[in-house]
Design a protein that fits this description.
The protein is an all-alpha fold. It has one domain (12-452). The protein is built from 17 helices and no strands. It has helices spanning 14-44, 48-85, 88-122, 128-143, 146-160, 164-187, 197-221, 237-269, 273-310, 313-340, 342-347, 353-366, 370-385, 389-412, 417-421, 423-444, 446-452. Helix 2 (48-85) runs parallel beside helix 5 and helix 8 (237-269) packs antiparallel against helix 9 (273-310). 54% of the residues are buried.
Length: 454
């Protein structure tokens, strides 16, 4: 009988482990956030309509990420827990079923892109230039989204076993390819055709496909704890139910962001299309602050799940406290940056005087929610690692649907655009209060949860 040695997630000192697991993901996600910013900077050089179109595409892209990343969260939590319990056959079954699920996700969004793109944009605007730009971008992104879903799948398998250096390499390579081909394909450099906004979409999917291929090869050659096999690709009902027990709340939680962004764009377009462009720019800039937190969270989830499976309560608590401290520090840095130089940030996107007039006060108001958001994000990762993803879902519903959208709508009735932005800090304050309640309840019951785990 093969003897399984203890994985480093159960033995390495917690702070060192969190850095070791999270730092590569933080670096790679920072590179991706930089790509998101630079991509929009290049698109803004076409015209403001193109920038607005990409902003309106964001809810669909966010929904795609929600499905891919949410499924990955479910796979990650199940795989890490089974590794902690030394149930290796179920580890392989979960890993191979995740590939099958990635293929299903791709087919879903291929159909959405083909049949729903036109109606999606006409629901938001009647400006022909924005509609055409948006349809072009969205159809390319969905038609080639097998790269994105495959990348999520194979990178999550690597993360589940603590091989985050490999995911840093794949994500960084994909983002660099993206960055390099953005200006080449948008503006037609070095003999390539001038593709405009279609070039931005093509560069995006090309980078994702390369990253997917690299992540697959890393799993085949480096990930010795997981065995990929065609024989295990067939769907297993029990395994998929276990994956989606965690994944569905995670998907819904992130999808709520798509609903929120879509409806916020509707509210903002009632003022001016420039307001929607500012909102899109804010999300790009915000990603550079939030992505390190999400990267750390991607490292936190398997650590918590593994130690939950192994019964190490003290390691779970230390991981949570260290992550929250780091999140608060990062968010404070983001808050200071947005308050001190909002105009310089907006000028990166070729901002007009109108965009500066709307965007400067918007950024200063929106960043007030950063510290509260950092605490909630880390707490959501802890809930997911402990199989309590429904708490994360409730938090997102409260923040983005119950509080944010009604507040934004009511504030829009004042006729003052600046008033609408205050809905965001109000929603985050409410969310962090509910987070504290759920976190206290979970920590109080942690001993019983560990004793009852299966």
């Amino acid at each position: 009988m093969e003897v399984q040695t203890e994985n480093k997630m159960g033995t390495m000192p917690v702070n060192k482990l969190l850095i070791h697991i999270s730092l590569p993901m933080v670096i790679s996600m920072l590179v991706q956030a930089l790509y998101n910013i630079v991509d929009s900077i290049f698109v803004a050089q076409i015209d403001e309509y193109a920038l607005t179109a990409v902003s309106l595409v964001f809810p669909v892209q966010n929904f795609m990420i929600a499905v891919g990343a949410g499924t990955g969260v479910g796979v990650n939590a199940l795989l890490s827990k089974r590794l902690g319990e030394k149930r290796m056959k179920e580890v392989d079954l979960a890993a191979n079923n995740s590939i099958f699920l990635a293929g299903c996700n791709y087919l879903l969004f291929l159909l959405i892109g083909i049949f729903c793109s036109d109606i999606y944009f006409r629901l938001q605007t009647d400006i022909p230039e924005i509609i055409e730009y948006g349809k072009t971008y969205l159809i390319i992104c969905t038609a080639a989204s097998f790269g994105m879903f495959g990348q999520f799948c194979f990178e999550r398998l690597l993360q589940s076993t603590g091989r985050t250096v490999c995911t840093m390499i794949t994500q960084t390579t994909g983002a660099i390819i993206n960055l390099a081909f953005d200006p080449i394909l948008i503006f037609g450099l070095f003999g390539f055709p001038k593709m405009g906004i279609a070039g931005a979409a093509a560069a995006t999917v090309f980078g994702q496909i390369v990253a997917m291929g690299m992540a697959y090869l890393y799993n085949r050659k480096k990930n010795t704890e997981i065995h990929l096999s065609a024989a295990l690709l067939r769907p297993d009902k029990k395994t998929m139910l276990q994956i989606y027990e965690v994944a569905v709340p995670a998907i819904l939680m992130q999808s709520i962001g798509s609903v929120m962004t879509f409806l916020m764009n509707k509210i903002l377009l009632g003022f001016t299309s420039t307001a929607a462009a500012v909102f899109g720019v804010y999300f790009k800039l915000q990603s550079f602050i939030f992505m390190p937190i999400f990267g750390m969270n991607n490292g936190l989830i398997p650590i918590v799940a593994y130690n939950y499976g192994a019964g190490h309560k003290d390691r779970i608590i230390r991981t949570m406290k260290s992550s929250m401290l780091a999140a608060v520090v990062i968010m404070l840095a983001g808050l200071l940056t947005a308050e001190l130089i909002p105009d310089r940030l907006l000028l990166l996107f070729n901002a007009s005087e109108q965009m500066l007039g709307i965007g400067v006060p918007a950024l200063r108001i929106l960043c007030l929610c950063y510290v509260f958001a950092g605490i909630s994000i880390v707490a959501s990762g802890v809930f997911q690692g402990l199989g309590k993803s429904v708490y994360s879902l409730v938090l997102s519903i409260i923040r983005q649907l119950v509080i944010l959208l009604p507040a934004a709508y009511l504030l829009s009735l004042t006729g003052e655009l600046n008033a609408v932005w205050f809905a965001f800090p109000l929603a985050e304050i409410a969310s962090v209060l509910v987070t504290a309640f759920y976190l206290r309840k979970t920590m109080h019951n942690l001993d019983q949860m560990i004793a009852k785990r299966t």
